[in-house]
Write a structure and sequence with these properties.
The chain is of the alpha+beta class and 579 residues long. 16% of the residues lie in helices and 23% in strands. The chain is elongated and about 100 Å long.
C-alpha cells in the first residue's frame, strides 16, 4: 500500500511539471509528426449540444467539434447514446464531419453490426468533394470495408488532414486499412450522390484470402464492374457512367511460395486476369442490418440513401472463384509474373499490357503503360482472344509457368530488383535508362510459345532469335487447369516448378564440368535457401552455363555440339549433350 501511495505521489509531481504548448484545452495528438489514429475529442471545457430528433426525451445526436473547431455530428443509430457522452460508439453509430466549415458535412463514416454481437462488421465511408470541385469520378469516395476476419480493423483516416488515406502504411506494405488476412472492401472513386444504385460498386469487391490463418494475405481477387454510359441515369441527375451489376475485369493474385511475413506483408508472385465479357453478379445479394438511423436525421446528409440500404450486391469470398470460372464469358486473359520478386503492393493487379516492349513510362504506350506497373522485372503474357481459357503450362524452354493461348509475351529483366516496385512508382522517380528484354511469340498459333527473342544489351534490337521447331524441340506441354484450384494447389505447383528448375540447374552444372568449365565462378547462384531462390538462381545458373558452353563450342568451331547445346538448353534436357 505504501509503495502505491509513493508511486501516486511521484506521478502527481510528474504530471505537475508537464507544460503543453497551446494550453490544456488542445487534444494532445494534434498536428504532430506522429500518426493520428482517432478523431480528436472536443477541447477541454467544450459543452456539446445533445439533440433529441424524434422527441422521445433521449439524445439522438451529439453536435460537437474536433480539432481546429471543425464541426462534427454523431448520430446514434442503436439507441444507446447518453447525455454526457463526448462521442458516439463504433458499433452502429454514424459520424459526420464538416471539414471546410461551410455548413455541409462532407465526410461520413457509418458503422454497422451486421450479426448482432455488439461489434461492427461494416464500416462505410462517403467522402464528398469540396465546393467548386466537380462531382463525379475521380472526385469523392464511396468505400465499404467488411470485417470478415473479425479483427476490428477498418479503413484509415488521417485525422490531421481529415482525409481518407487507405494507402497509408508502416514500412513497405503493412497497410493501416485492413488488407491483411481474410478481409474485403468495396470501393469507387466518386461520391454517392452521383451513383444510381448504391448496392453496387466499381471494385466490387476486393477480396483478400488467408488460407493458413497467419493474419497475412496469400491470395487476392479483385473484381471490377467498369462504369458504362447510362443516359437514363444522367437524365436523372447522376453521373453519366454507372455500374450495372456485371463484372468485366478480374485479377487473381497468388503468393506462390507463401513467403510473406511481417515486413514482407504482401509478396504476390503472379496474377492471372480476365477482361471483357465477364459475368452478371446481381444475384449475389448480402443482407444488411443496422444501417437505417432515424429518418429525422436524413436532413444532415448530402445523400442519405445509403442509410436506407437493406442489401449490398457483390461476389463474396465463398462464391467469387466459381463465378469467375463457371459464369465468366471472358474475351481476354493476361498473366503477369513478378520475376524479380520485388512487388510489395497488396495485390499484383497493375498488369503489363500488350504494348511496345521497349517504350517506358506511365501512359507512354509500353508494356508498363499502367502508372503502378513495375518499370522492369515483370513478365507479361497475353491471350487476346481467351482461346486458352486461362489455363497454364510449364514451358520446356525455360521451366517457367506460362499462359496457354498467349499470342505473345514480354519479360523486362531487372536481375537485381534495382527498380523496386512499391505501391506507386510515381514517388520514386527512378527509372532504368536501359534494360534487357526477352520477347516470346506463338508463331504457329497452337497456344504454346515457340519463338524466343533476346535483347540483352538493351539497345532495343533483338540480337538473338530462337525457334524451337528448328531445334527439334516440341513446344507442346501438359496443360494446367486452375479452374478448380485451391491455394494449396498453387503452392504445390510452384514447389514442383522450383524443384525441377533447380534439378535442371544441377544437371547443367555437371554437364559444364564434363566439358572442363569452372562453375565456381557462379558460386553465388549455387546456394539457394528458399523455393524462390531455387527458381531464380536455377534459371540464371542454367543460362550462364548455356552461354559459356555456347562460347566454348564456338571457339572450337564445333557446330555439332552447338546444335546439341541449343536443343539441350531449350528443352531443359541437359542429357542431350551426352548423346
Amino acid at each position: 500500500m505504501r509503495k502505491e501511495i509513493i508511486l501516486c505521489g511521484l506521478l502527481a509531481c510528474a504530471v505537475g511539471t508537464v507544460h503543453v504548448r497551446g494550453g490544456s484545452s488542445d487534444y494532445w495528438n494534434r498536428q504532430l509528426q506522429i500518426g493520428s489514429f482517432r478523431l480528436p475529442p472536443p477541447p477541454t471545457g467544450f459543452v456539446p449540444e445533445y439533440l433529441d430528433l424524434n422527441g422521445d426525451g433521449k439524445p439522438d445526436a451529439i453536435r460537437s467539434v474536433t480539432r481546429d473547431d471543425i464541426p462534427v455530428l454523431w448520430l446514434d443509430d442503436d439507441g444507446d447514446m447518453r447525455e454526457g457522452d463526448l462521442e458516439g460508439d463504433l458499433d452502429n453509430d454514424c459520424l459526420l464531419i464538416d471539414r471546410d466549415k461551410d455548413g455541409v458535412y462532407d465526410l461520413v463514416i457509418k458503422y454497422a453490426d451486421l450479426d448482432g454481437d455488439g461489434r461492427a462488421d461494416l464500416q462505410l465511408i462517403a467522402e464528398y468533394p469540396k465546393e467548386g470541385v466537380a462531382r463525379g469520378w475521380p472526385n469523392g469516395h464511396y468505400m465499404i470495408v467488411l470485417d470478415t476476419d473479425r479483427d476490428g480493423v477498418f479503413n484509415y483516416i488521417n485525422w490531421n488532414t481529415m482525409l481518407l488515406e487507405c494507402w497509408e502504411k508502416y514500412g513497405i506494405s503493412d497497410f493501416y486499412t485492413d488488407y491483411s488476412g481474410q478481409s474485403a472492401f468495396i470501393k469507387i472513386h466518386t461520391s454517392t450522390d452521383q451513383m444510381k444504385d448504391l448496392r453496387l460498386n466499381w471494385e466490387n469487391p476486393f477480396l483478400f484470402y488467408d488460407p493458413d490463418r497467419d493474419g497475412l494475405s496469400e491470395m487476392a481477387i479483385r473484381i471490377v464492374d467498369t462504369p458504362q454510359p447510362d443516359p437514363a441515369a444522367q437524365a436523372d441527375g447522376f453521373e453519366k457512367q454507372q455500374v450495372a451489376g456485371r463484372a468485366d475485369w478480374v485479377s487473381i493474385a497468388v503468393d506462390l511460395d507463401n513467403d510473406n511475413a511481417p515486413g514482407n506483408d504482401f509478396d504476390f508472385d503472379c496474377t492471372l486476369g480476365f477482361m471483357g465479357g465477364g459475368f452478371d453478379y446481381t444475384d449475389q445479394v448480402h443482407a444488411l442490418r443496422n444501417m437505417r438511423g432515424l429518418p429525422e436525421a436524413d436532413r444532415f446528409f448530402i445523400d442519405p440513401r445509403f442509410r436506407e440500404l437493406t442489401e449490398l450486391i457483390y461476389a463474396d469470398h465463398k462464391n467469387a472463384w466459381n463465378l469467375i470460372y463457371r459464369r465468366g464469358e471472358w474475351k481476354q486473359a493476361y498473366l503477369v509474373f513478378d520475376e524479380d520478386d520485388d512487388c510489395a503492393r497488396w495485390e499484383r493487379v497493375e498488369f503489363y499490357y500488350p504494348m511496345d516492349p521497349f517504350k517506358m513510362g506511365s501512359g507512354k504506350g509500353g508494356v508498363d503503360n499502367h502508372p503502378q506497373s513495375d518499370w522492369a522485372g515483370d513478365r507479361g503474357e497475353w491471350d487476346l482472344d481467351n482461346s486458352g481459357g486461362g489455363r497454364l503450362y510449364v514451358g520446356r524452354f525455360d521451366g517457367r509457368i506460362h499462359l496457354y493461348g498467349a499470342e505473345w509475351g514480354c519479360w523486362r529483366i531487372d536481375q537485381t530488383a534495382r527498380y523496386f516496385q512499391g505501391y506507386d512508382r510515381s514517388w520514386q522517380n527512378k527509372a532504368p535508362k536501359s534494360f534487357a528484354t526477352v520477347k516470346y511469340t506463338d508463331t504457329d498459333d497452337n497456344g504454346f510459345l515457340d519463338c524466343i527473342e533476346y535483347d540483352l544489351d538493351g539497345d532495343r534490337v533483338f540480337e538473338t532469335k530462337i525457334e524451337l521447331k528448328a531445334l527439334g524441340v516440341d513446344d507442346r506441354c501438359e496443360l494446367i487447369d486452375v479452374s478448380d484450384f485451391k491455394y494449396g494447389d498453387f503452392t504445390r505447383l510452384y514447389k514442383k516448378v522450383s524443384g525441377k528448375m533447380w534439378a535442371n540447374a544441377v544437371a547443367a552444372r555437371k554437364a559444364a564440368e564434363r566439358f572442363g568449365l569452372n562453375t565456381l565462378w557462379y558460386a553465388k547462384l549455387q546456394q539457394p535457401s528458399s523455393l524462390r531462390e531455387q527458381y531464380r538462381d536455377g534459371y540464371w545458373l542454367q543460362f550462364y552455363i548455356y552461354k559459356d558452353l555456347e562460347n566454348l563450342f564456338m571457339r572450337e568451331n564445333d557446330s555439332a555440339m552447338l546444335e546439341k547445346l541449343q536443343a539441350a538448353y531449350f528443352s531443359s534436357d541437359w542429357a542431350r549433350l551426352s548423346r
